[in-house]
């Protein structure tokens, strides 16, 4: 199973000391690392200040990033402090604007990265910390004079503007930001120290509303486009919300939430004079299409509104349909798995129907498909004497994980911990227990209709119930340990990384081993293989964590160990690797992921050892399928920069081929040999090209160990090359010799695929007869049961 649990989205404090007085404007552009966002204000990576502000044909509106705008008022007079940006500024010089406007950064000494829950509750301590830092740098206001708790977060605006007024209609610079508007008041203007930095500010002045309107009307004065938007839309004269301007009643603005809008992001195209730029950008945010950070429609997975965390908010890297069809062997595997030799469901067996309430079991099966389609098929093919036990085990742990994952339902972490630790005594004891309003989508439905799961759970054998209850308690205890930990920057070290994986996946492996033994389908000794069970779970969980880097980082609960990634992050922030833009940047990201993949590969010998101890064919397949998917995923992730800009997945056809190859230990060994060879080739090729990988020797050792363990079956499977060649030949003949009157290419391709499918059927049957007969030591559950009864 292996679910990744959530934590606070705030990043950990890092050791990076930022000294604005020691840097030039060019230094800021090169060294400052801004927070790259998607259209929903989710942090998806980092970028230099320079690269994010470039307007070009490649990025017509720059790169969307987070910003803040501070408006500081003298509460005794109602005046607001304006600044005139210095003439030496690279973007929007010589313009009047609000008190201070800049960017929160990655890797600051005081964390400046806020997550969705920080926005939802209005705390945004990261943005406020950035504001305090820049107010001191630009205006010389000492940190202690403007306490962070005095800032009022009001709303967010998404805007873009080319700096055409300064640099001409083809300006190479501009802004593209989701801007957090902050208000703060001081008793009098004399209560703060003002020492403007000459490289940042040319002038300052305190203005009333009427004075500001006069300045707006003066064509000789330039104003920043973002400040004009804020002032005209919300600050002055009633505003667009009809509740009066924020500046009209500062006491109400600062002491109530009447004007606060933390849910919406208000989007604006710029005034006409700020259209254009190096990419000739035109109106965009007012159009019907929902844009992404770079102006394209994002390819997202699933319905983000019905999934917890960052699921569905990160793009998926996938091959085109044509590319997938070019892998003819995988197309054959898909045909075989779907139509010729599919995974058989045993859910309709007589003893299951007699043992459990039909409606409740139907709900459990339906919700399993909704919350985990990939696990549903491998669970259903289990023998009837084990299937429902594992199905309920999965759903119980998924319900527990949903509780732990919800970052807004509970009033405090202490309340969440109490619910987690009591779950085995409430949900698994009380037949009426349920939880309303926790989680999202189908996970919420699972909790709200949990009595149906309890009904099936209560009808399980006592030994199965005991195993499920025990693992549930121990997993909840582990989750409780991590609830209060700040995982925004990952786990502290490899030891904590392993401990986390043990709680959420290793314990699942132990529970499954005990259920296998309790069913009588596996030997009692398997229940005592705690170490191997744990290692197998860790292998799956680490693979998920490696693949889901960006998704987890965006969700604010990452798991990459800091003792690994900090060796490679120049900014001291985990987001440094996201969307690498330079060779140095990309090299660091690849070094990091290569080390983590290698760490996971070192678990493979124990995984193979565990599989070799199984005797039931269906149990073996249940365990083997996730394992071969994991090694294929590691191969996909190794030295792959796509991991840092989205989610990488193996082809569906490849998944089918892998499933077809899990009928015995020989097939599994062949698969592991194939992908260990692939990773080794990639490592050696990169080295030949001059790539210096600190983990190279370790990677070679891990892959070599796997190859040595699986060498025998790899040689035995050499004949499959001949089979693949024959299948390709059959496909070619189908395309070339079968002619239709309309000359349809589609029809010809269909004919080819059908020809391949027919040959695949022949090959499968033939290989079963001459190649596999008598090789496997596995026995189907029916034979084991007969043997036991005999």
Based on secondary structure, the structural category is alpha/beta
- Discrete helix count: 31
- Beta-strand level of the residues, as a percent range? 5-15%
Helix content: 40-55%
Radius of gyration (CA) equals 30 Å
Instruction: Give the uncertain stretches in residue-range form.
Output: 1-15, 288-312, 719-750, 760-774
Tell how many strands the DSSP assignment holds.
12
> Largest sheet, if any?
8 strands, mixed
Terminal-residue CA separation: 35 Å
Instruction: Please tell me the overall pLDDT.
Output: 85
What's this model, at a glance?
With 790 residues, this protein is α/β, with parallel strands linked by helices. The chain is 50% helix and 9% strand.
Question: Could you please describe the fold and organization of this structure?
Answer:
- By secondary structure, the chain is α/β, with parallel strands linked by helices.
- The chain contains 31 helices and 12 strands.
- Strands 3, 4, 5, 6, 7, 8, 9 and 10 form an 8-stranded mixed beta sheet that branches. A two-stranded antiparallel ribbon has the order 1-2. It has a two-stranded parallel ribbon with strand order 11-12.
- Strand 3 and strand 4 form a beta hairpin.
- Helix 12 packs across helix 17 and helix 23 runs antiparallel to helix 25.
């Amino acid at each position: 199973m292996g679910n990744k649990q959530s934590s606070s989205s705030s990043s950990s404090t890092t050791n990076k000391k930022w000294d604005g007085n020691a840097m030039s404007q060019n230094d800021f552009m090169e060294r400052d690392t801004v927070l790259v966002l998607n259209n929903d204000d989710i942090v998806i990576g980092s970028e230099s200040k320079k690269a994010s502000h470039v307007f070009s044909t490649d990025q017509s509106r720059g790169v969307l990033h987070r910003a803040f705008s501070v408006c500081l008022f003298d509460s005794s007079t109602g005046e607001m402090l304006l600044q005139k940006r210095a003439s030496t500024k690279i973007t929007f010089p010589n313009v009047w604007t609000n008190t201070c406007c800049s960017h929160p950064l990655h890797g600051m000494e005081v964390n400046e990265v806020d997550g969705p829950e920080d926005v939802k509750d209005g705390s945004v301590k990261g943005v406020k910390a950035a504001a305090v830092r820049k107010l001191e740098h630009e205006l010389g206001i000492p940190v202690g004079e403007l306490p962070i708790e005095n800032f009022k977060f009001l709303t967010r605006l998404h805007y873009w503007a080319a700096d055409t007024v300064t640099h001409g209609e083809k300006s190479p610079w501009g802004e593209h930001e989701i801007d957090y508007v902050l208000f703060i008041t001081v008793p009098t203007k004399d209560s703060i120290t003002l020492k403007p930095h000459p490289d940042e500010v040319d002038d300052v002045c305190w203005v009333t509303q009427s004075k500001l309107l006069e300045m707006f009307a003066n064509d000789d004065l330039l104003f920043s486009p973002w400040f004009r938007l804020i002032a005209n839309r919300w600050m002055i004269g009633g505003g667009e919300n009809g509740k009066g301007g924020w500046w009209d009643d500062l006491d109400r603005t600062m002491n109530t939430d009447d004007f606060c809008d933390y849910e919406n992001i208000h989007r604006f195209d710029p005034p006409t004079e700020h259209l254009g730029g190096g990419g000739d950008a035109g109106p965009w945010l007012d159009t019907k299409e929902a844009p992404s950070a770079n102006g394209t429609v994002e390819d997202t997975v699933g319905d983000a509104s019905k999934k917890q965390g960052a699921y569905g908010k990160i793009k998926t890297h996938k091959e085109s349909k044509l590319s997938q069809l070019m892998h003819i062997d995988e197309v054959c595997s898909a045909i075989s798995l779907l139509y010729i030799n599919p995974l058989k469901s045993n859910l309709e067996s007589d003893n299951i129907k007699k043992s459990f309430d039909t409606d409740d079991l139907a709900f459990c099966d339906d919700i399993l498909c909704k919350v985990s389609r990939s696990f549903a098929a491998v669970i259903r093919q289990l023998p009837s004497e084990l299937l429902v036990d594992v199905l309920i085990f999965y759903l119980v742990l998924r319900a527990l994980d949903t509780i732990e994952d919800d970052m807004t339902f509970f009033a405090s972490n202490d309340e969440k911990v109490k619910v987690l630790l009591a779950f085995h005594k409430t949900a698994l004891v009380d037949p009426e227990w349920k939880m309303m309003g926790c989680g999202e989508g189908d996970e919420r439905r699972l909790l709200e209709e949990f009595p149906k799961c309890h009904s099936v759970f209560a009808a399980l054998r006592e030994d199965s119930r005991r195993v499920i209850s025990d693992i549930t308690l121990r997993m909840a205890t582990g989750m409780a340990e991590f609830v209060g930990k700040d995982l925004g920057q990952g786990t502290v070290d490899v030891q904590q990384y392993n401990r986390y994986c043990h709680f959420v996946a290793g314990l699942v492996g132990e529970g499954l081993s005990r259920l296998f033994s309790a069913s009588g389908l596996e030997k009692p000794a398997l229940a005592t293989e705690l170490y191997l069970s744990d290692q197998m779970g860790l292998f799956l969980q680490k693979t998920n964590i490696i693949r889901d880097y960006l998704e987890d980082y965006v969700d604010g609960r990452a798991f990459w160990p800091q003792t690994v990634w900090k060796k490679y992050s120049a900014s001291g922030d985990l987001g440094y690797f996201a969307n690498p833009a330079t060779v140095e940047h990309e090299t660091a990201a690849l070094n990091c992921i290569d080390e983590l993949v290698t760490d996971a590969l070192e678990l493979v010998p124990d995984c193979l050892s565990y599989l070799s101890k199984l005797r039931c064919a269906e149990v073996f397949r249940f365990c083997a399928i996730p394992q071969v998917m994991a090694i294929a995923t590691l191969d996909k992730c190794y030295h792959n920069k796509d991991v840092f800009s989205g989610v990488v997945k193996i082809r569906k056809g490849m998944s089918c081929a892998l499933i077809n190859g899990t009928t015995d230990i020989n097939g599994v060994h062949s698969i592991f040999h194939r992908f260990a060879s692939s990773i080794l080739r990639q490592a050696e090729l990169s080295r030949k090209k001059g790539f210096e990988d600190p983990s190279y020797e370790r990677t070679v050792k891990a892959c070599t160990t796997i190859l040595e363990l699986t060498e025998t079956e790899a040689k035995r499977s050499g004949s499959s090359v001949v089979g693949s060649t024959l299948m390709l030949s059959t496909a070619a003949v189908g395309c070339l010799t079968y002619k239709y009157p309309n000359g349809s290419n589609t029809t010809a391709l269909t004919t080819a695929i059908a020809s391949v499918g027919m040959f695949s059927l022949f090959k499968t049957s033939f290989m079963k007869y001459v190649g596999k007969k008598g090789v496997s030591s596995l026995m189907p559950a029916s034979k084991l049961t007969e043997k036991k009864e005999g």
